[in-house]
Every structure is written in C-alpha cells, then in structure tokens.
Amino acid sequence: MTIETTVHLLRHGEVHNPEGILYGRRPGYNLSELGLKMAERVAERIGGQDITHVISSPLERAQQTAGPLAKALGVDISLDERVLESENLFVGKSFKDGLGPLRDPKVWPKLINPLKPSWGEPYLEIVARMMAAIEDARDLARGHEAVIVSHQLPIWTTRLHIEGRSFLHDPRKRQCALCSLTSLHFVGDEFVALSYSEPAGDMLPAKDKYAPFSAGDAD
C-alpha cells in the first residue's frame, strides 16, 4: 500500500521592522498588521486540507503565522528549535539602505567564503537540522500532511539541498516569498516531488526588502 505524505515549509508573514534591522533570532519582532492578515489568508486557503500537525520555530513571528492555521485545524502548535532562523554575524545591524555595514572594509574578511558561508551558520548545518525536523514531521503525519513554519534562508537552503543545487545564490532571486509554501511530497520515506505556492501572493509588498547576500530574515 502506497502511503503519501506532504510536509509544507511555510515562511512567516511580514514583520514590523521599519528600521530594516537584520533581526535573526532576536526576540520581540512581531508580525505587522499585513503579516497578521497574511497568516489569516494562509489559514483560509489550506485550513481545510488533511493537515494533522503544525510545527513552528519558537520565534514570535513564526508562532503568530502558525496561530490562525492551528486554530482552523483544531490542533496545537508544536515548537521545534531545529527550524529556527539561521545564525548571522550581522544580526542587530540595519540594512535599510541595502548594504548597511557591508560598506565597512573592516567586515570584508568575514565575507570570504560565500559557499560556507563565512558570515553565518554553515549551510550544511542548516540543512542537517532542517532535514531532521522534516523527517520527524513526515513520520508524525504519515499518510497526511504537516506544516512547519520557518524562515526564508532555512527553507531556501533546504530546497537547494533537495534539488541538488549549489548553495551559492543571489538572495534576491530566492523563490520563498512571505507566507509561501514549499511543499515536500513523500511516498513512504522517499522524497518524490517539490511544489511551491503563494497563498497570500496577492498581499505581498512590492518586494522583499533588506535581503543582503544570504543574511536571512530582515523583512
């Protein structure tokens, strides 16, 4: 008997961040009014699907995104630190003008290796923790669907890994919009396909702001 399972990686909604701070894992960054509406839209669009588990990064913006969906499904939110935002040396700095502290020659030695990357958590470490969480979610929801609410860079890095692509990329070209779903489809334990959708696509700002190199969430 073929058992099909889907694990959806849901990026959180828009965050209130007028200063363009690279907030990373810092507490206190919550969804904006638009971000809350985006989370509600996701719940409206997929709240009727066969989703049995909702798992979230412990950060406020992720839990706020998970809330309406969990309520619509009548399930509890499980927190998983393995799907946290990536670590980054530039957390707390403002990238409101695009480059921010990257203009300072003193930081250039930290940008030596874009494949690792040298300025933050290594891509392979991000992939290892994300894949472990995905496999656990697949097992919990076997024969159904699970949603993991995470962050742009962990989701995108995981996709690059699954598709066998290089980690070296232009962050402006990531296909991982706010409140988007990167859906991983399994037959048994075997990954068979990836699909992508934007339930709140019509609500997106003109562009995802403040995305220098692979800095992670600042929008």
Automatic annotation (TrEMBL):
GO terms for molecular function: phosphatase activity. It comes from Nocardioides luteus. Gene3D superfamilies: Phosphoglycerate mutase-like (3.40.50.1240). Pfam families: His_Phos_1 (PF00300). It comes from the Bacteria. The lineage of its organism: Bacteria, Bacillati, Actinomycetota, Actinomycetes, Propionibacteriales. CDD domains: HP_PGM_like. GO terms for cellular component: cytoplasm. Coiled coil: none annotated. This is Histidine phosphatase family protein. PANTHER family: BROAD-SPECIFICITY PHOSPHATASE YOR283W-RELATED, PHOSPHOGLYCERATE MUTASE.
